[in-house]
């Protein structure tokens, strides 16, 4: 008899607990596994040996994991070095843990790979479960967490658009998460139903931001439509690759920047004399269980199950990946990817998904993204106006 440990790392998603559910339920089917531990507080909880045994928890609580946002066992961004990985191996041996599952994004997969190397000679299997709202994990078609965030941003932009169209006197800047990649920002395009629907501009970090071109386009849209909705990535960069907003705070491991949305709104007000305001869903979006994608939830559960099956089969240093078989009907299958192909590598938006004008996405991206949100964005009623509405401040 051996035990299993599940660890969450990095920022949570609305389906990371669904993967936890899948892993627990698959592990419960195997008599070889006695205790199914969860590290309370990510790698920090791992190092502190702060574990919960899911076999001792009521099944009613386990079932709630499927639709519980964030992470029920906590997470962390604890710095890890050789000393910590060796300490982890000692902890695993102490608790007779033969199988370890890391659920997370780029940094977590790096930790997964490093622990797999340190633990290999001790006959301990370490597997990765993909998770990220940013959709930036390499090799896999997409990652659990992105589909729900895509649904949220598209729904939010669609709702904002109704407000802006009802009183078309200003420019609304919606800032989307994704510091280095534009997948979430791009997903806002799913809000559109008809020509001239919002978002009217999509600003990706993969495309250099040009202030004059931005202001010219905003003014043209405003003069033609009245209300304008712009969705901008929090990681917008200029032609030199520098963030368009300056850093406001730095630590040893991270740099914190000002809000892109506020910066762009101020530009519009100061340079064009047009009312503008910014919105920043942020954590509200990634924690929205109400807008959880059903497809995302199912895939997250299955990714957890697949990781357990792979570990029990003796695999280590691998991550569960998702391969797309077809778009219509949408179908995918699960595969195993060497963790070395994933560790600390970011998947940016490919050129074929970015419109040639640099401020929109292509139909190819829409076909890629739409199946992941688990349904259509709602339709809304609207009656066209016949008279002019004042637009200036």
Automatic annotation (TrEMBL):
Tell me what this protein is called: 6-phosphofructokinase
Which species is this record about? Answer: Vallitalea maricola
């Amino acid at each position: 008899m051996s035990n299993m440990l599940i660890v969450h790392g990095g920022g949570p998603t609305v389906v990371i607990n669904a993967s936890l559910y899948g892993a627990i339920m698959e592990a419960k089917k195997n008599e070889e596994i006695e205790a199914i531990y969860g590290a309370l507080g990510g790698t920090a909880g791992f190092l502190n040996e702060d574990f919960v045994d899911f076999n001792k928890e009521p099944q009613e609580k386990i079932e709630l994991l499927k639709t519980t946002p964030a992470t029920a066992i906590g997470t962390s961004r604890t710095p890890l070095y050789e000393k910590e990985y060796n300490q982890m191996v000692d902890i695993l041996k102490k608790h007779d843990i033969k199988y370890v599952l890391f659920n997370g994004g780029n940094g977590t997969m790096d930790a997964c790979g490093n622990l797999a190397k340190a633990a290999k000679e001790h006959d301990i299997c370490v597997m990765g479960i993909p998770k990220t709202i940013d959709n930036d994990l390499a090799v896999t078609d997409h990652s659990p967490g992105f589909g729900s965030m895509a649904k949220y941003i598209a729904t939010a932009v669609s709702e904002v658009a109704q407000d802006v169209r009802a009183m078309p006197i200003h420019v609304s800047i919606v800032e989307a998460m994704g510091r280095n990649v534009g997948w979430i920002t791009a997903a806002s395009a799913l809000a559109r139903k008809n020509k001239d629907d919002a978002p009217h501009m999509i600003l990706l970090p993969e495309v250099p931001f040009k202030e004059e071109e931005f202001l010219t386009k905003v003014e043209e849209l405003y003069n033609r439509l009245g209300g304008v909705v712009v969705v901008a990535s929090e990681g917008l960069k200029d032609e030199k690759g520098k963030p368009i907003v300056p850093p406001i705070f730095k630590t040893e491991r991270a740099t914190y920047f000002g809000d892109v949305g506020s910066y762009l709104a101020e530009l519009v007000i100061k340079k064009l004399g047009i009312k503008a305001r910014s919105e920043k869903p942020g954590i509200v979006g990634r924690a929205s269980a109400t807008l959880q994608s059903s497809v995302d939830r199912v895939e997250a559960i299955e990714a957890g199950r697949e990781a357990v099956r792979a570990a029990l089969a003796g695999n280590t240093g691998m991550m569960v990946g998702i391969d797309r078989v077809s778009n219509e009907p949408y179908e995918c299958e699960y595969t195993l990817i060497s963790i070395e192909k994933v560790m600390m590598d970011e998947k940016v938006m490919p050129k074929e998904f970015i419109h040639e004008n640099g401020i929109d996405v292509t139909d190819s991206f829409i076909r890629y993204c739409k199946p992941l949100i688990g349904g259509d964005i709602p339709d809304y009623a609207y009656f066209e106006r016949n008279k002019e509405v004042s637009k200036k401040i």
